[in-house]
Amino acid sequence: MGDSIACICGYRGPSVPADGGPVCPICRTAAAREEKRLQIPCPNGHLLPVPESLLGQRVVCPRCNEFFQLTAESSLEHRREADRRRQEREAVQARRWLTGAIVAAVLVAAVLATLIVLSLMRS
Predict the structure, then answer these.
(1) Where are the domains of the chain?
(2) Which end of the chain is more exposed for a tag (fewer CB within 10 A), N or C?
């Protein structure tokens, strides 16, 4: 099976490879690749699958009739990616703090050991 397509006959799914490119397995017509869809919530929280070509447009939610602007930043995919990047940054910062704490502990232990050795040498 081939690429995911959306055909004019209503079929959505994998295409069948052919000489002229991907074709619909139902009606055998050449089909365009299916456009990527983003999950964008309306202001009341209803999730809407939105093709990328509609981004930037003002639309109405079919469930609650609320008007809102479609933006990529409000999509669940964008939010998940932003959360993933934030978690990576926090993990890097936590590793730096841990490394700094270990270095500080080693330095304190070295200074204490030096002071103990010096005090034993004086007596």
Answers:
(1) 1-34, 38-71, 75-123
(2) C
